[in-house]
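A.,

Following up on our hallway conversation. Structure tokens first:
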């Protein structure tokens, strides 16, 4: 079954990439638009992705604290970097699973509690994404439904039979609130990234449209089978384009730009992890050499 899923993911990825190539080939103006994107825009987006990485580091830090454990800053940064790479290239967005297994083995984090806390994070992410999707489309009634629906869900979970979740929340409510705040900041940063990308191809794009775009894009993470949700994110955004009021050409162009810059971003993370390993290796070699010299 596992091999079947992996095979399906590979086939889907190849099909989606083929569709991207076909679309770009049949729309040569898209390549011309990509060539016009300034270096400053690319650097700005990379910087924003760096800020997004910091929010993930903070969320991991508060999650581990919530489990009653601690981790060093270096360990947190490296684990976040590795899991970002695994999450993109691994099957079925496997970054969170990689973090959970590592933290259980190295830091003694309770696996069940960490999974529950991860679900709380995804609940926050879904809640904010739903609100952004409808607020950006000026669907105020639906936005209120999502807002109060989230609050009602928490009340039901807290005061009914979900005792394990209630005890988990009572264990460290401060870190739960911190995770909620940082997740909101993360969604705002992602919205800014998409806004810059969309604005690069359509100067008339408003921030509210980018909010709806972000809401739809985030929901694709829960059903993605391909690396980085390639194809699924585009499908979600195109399916909800009546809410964002963005045309398909702008959506595809911004998506291609985002994928290209995200690959550069992943490359920088990979180089960073290699450099850290190189420093550690050199440090060990130097220490060994000193010991030999003293003898």
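Then the amino acids I'd put at each of the 295 positions:
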């Amino acid at each position: 079954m596992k091999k079947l899923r992996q095979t399906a993911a590979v086939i889907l990825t190849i099909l989606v990439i083929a569709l991207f190539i076909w679309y770009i080939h049949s729309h040569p103006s898209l390549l011309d638009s990509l060539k016009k994107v300034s270096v400053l825009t690319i650097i700005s987006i990379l910087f924003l992705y760096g800020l997004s990485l910091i929010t993930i580091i903070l969320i991991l830090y508060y999650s581990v604290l919530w489990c009653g454990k601690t981790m060093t800053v270096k360990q947190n940064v490296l684990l976040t970097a590795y899991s970002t790479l695994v999450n993109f290239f691994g099957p079925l967005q496997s970054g969170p699973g990689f973090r959970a297994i590592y933290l259980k083995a190295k830091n003694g984090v309770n696996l069940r509690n960490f999974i529950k806390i991860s679900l709380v994070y995804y609940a926050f992410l879904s809640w904010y994404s739903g609100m952004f999707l409808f607020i950006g489309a000026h669907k105020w009634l639906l936005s209120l439904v999502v807002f109060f629906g989230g609050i009602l869900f928490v009340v039901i979970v807290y005061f009914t039979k979900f005792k394990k979740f209630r005890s988990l929340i009572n264990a460290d409510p401060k870190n739960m609130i911190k995770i909620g705040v940082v997740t909101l900041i993360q969604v705002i940063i992602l919205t800014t990234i998409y806004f810059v990308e969309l604005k690069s191809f359509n100067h008339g794009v408003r921030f509210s449209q980018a909010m709806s775009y972000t809401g739809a894009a985030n929901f694709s993470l829960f059903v993605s089978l391909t690396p980085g949700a390639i194809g699924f994110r585009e499908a979600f955004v195109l399916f909800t384009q009546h809410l964002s009021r963005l045309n398909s050409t702008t959506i595809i162009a911004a998506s291609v730009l985002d994928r290209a810059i995200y690959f550069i971003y992943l490359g920088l993370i990979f180089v960073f992890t290699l450099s850290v390993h190189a420093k550690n290796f050199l440090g060990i070699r130097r220490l060994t050499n000193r010991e030999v010299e003293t003898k």
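Residues 281-295 have pLDDT under 50 and may be disordered. Curious whether your intuition agrees with the design.

B.
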